[in-house]
Design a protein that fits this description.
mainly alpha, 175 residues, elongated, 51% helix, two-stranded antiparallel sheet, 2 domains
């Protein structure tokens, strides 16, 4: 799989995970770029992923000179990916993996949130999730943690704001 194809496929994985679960599979940020969605952070990370054994590459002929083709490396088998995310990946790769690059780019560019993103701007995953999912999915772990902490603070009385009169009554009642 080439870098260009990798960007498109991972965009589709993130999109499908957002639709199904209300959160991204990995959290990759993409921009609306000349040839569709492009992730500068992903492009920067590909060499690191290869060095860590998550990806393996080989040189392949390209339109101008040579390019590289990537596949999963041995370290990728050791990573803990939830069964749900693994299923999303398998289904996206089954549905779009055999398309020509031109067909893959066209399919990916015809999806929201890409269609809603002006050229050169970052794709708004949060807005896509909020508009598409309408709160029917699980909360992101950090949001869930914040809510639990807020409930605990409210129950224990920490961070409670009282008027002067309420505070005096509370102190004198327990005094």
């Amino acid at each position: 799989m080439t870098k260009v194809r990798l960007h498109k496929m991972l965009y589709l994985v993130e999109r499908e995970a957002a639709i199904r679960t209300g959160r991204l599979a990995v959290g990759i940020r993409f921009k609306n770029h000349n040839y569709g969605m492009f992730s500068p952070p992903l492009a920067d990370s590909i060499d690191e992923l290869e060095n860590a054994g998550f990806l393996q590459s080989r040189v392949v002929p390209a339109d101008s000179g040579e390019g590289r083709s990537y596949r999963l490396g041995p370290a990728s088998e050791k990573t803990l990916v939830s069964a749900g995310i693994r299923l999303v990946c398998e289904e996206v790769f089954a549905e779009y993996g055999r398309l020509s690059l031109k067909g893959l780019v066209a399919k990916a560019k015809a999806t929201e949130p890409f269609l809603d993103t002006p050229k050169g701007k970052w794709i708004n995953w949060r807005g896509f999730i909020e508009n598409r999912c309408e709160g029917e999915h699980q909360l992101a772990p950090e949001v869930e943690r914040e809510l639990i902490e807020a409930k605990e603070r409210a129950r224990s009385g920490r961070n409670r704001v009282l008027t002067r009169e309420q505070a005096l009554r509370l102190v004198t009642a327990h005094g």
